[in-house]
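URGENT: need a sanity check before tomorrow's submission.

F., can you look over the Glucose/sorbosone dehydrogenase domain protein record below? I want to be sure the sequence and structure line up before it goes out.
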Amino acid sequence: MLRIDVNSSENGKGYKIPEDNPFINDSCCAPETFAYGFRNPWRYSFDPKGRLIVADVGQDLWEEVSIVERGKNYGWNIKEASHCFEPKRNCKQEGLIDPIYEYGREEGQSITGGYVYSNSLISDLNGKYIFADFVSGRIWALDLPDESTQPAKKVYSLGKWPLLISSFGKDAAGKVYLSDFGSGKIYRIDRSKN
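Structure tokens as predicted:
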């Protein structure tokens, strides 16, 4: 995951590298690197505390949600979510950060990251991170942990829908929307009329 300042430029580049990037003076990584060990981050957002939340699409078996910290390794391709990937057993896990939440193929196959809901329209969702699975059409909300290395406090199912949820959006009032790749329609997360 890269972090650059697009409002400035230096060394003939169309951007500047922030001076507090973790690898700016380390030959191990490109100086633009903020964190690494992700397979295929599919959407990210910031929670009310300013923490970066990323949904990462897995390879074979697991999808994951992580709270990203500067300079940390989130494990790919040694681990897929919190499970050894290569090798399948007894992989070296020291220094690798586990996700706050993961789910397997029985729940879905391609995570779509979302937003923290921050509107009183649905008070039960206020402060919860909403995300979905593109393939299964499932939508969840989770209580974010206090620390980025702790698991999610609780996860709630918001149902399974006949949608290919490819992205989320959030308006100025804190309401969350989702887009259906199949129909091209946009839906607002709302209370059930039933």
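My own read: The chain has a mean pLDDT of 96. The chain has no helices and 13 strands. If you see anything odd, call me.
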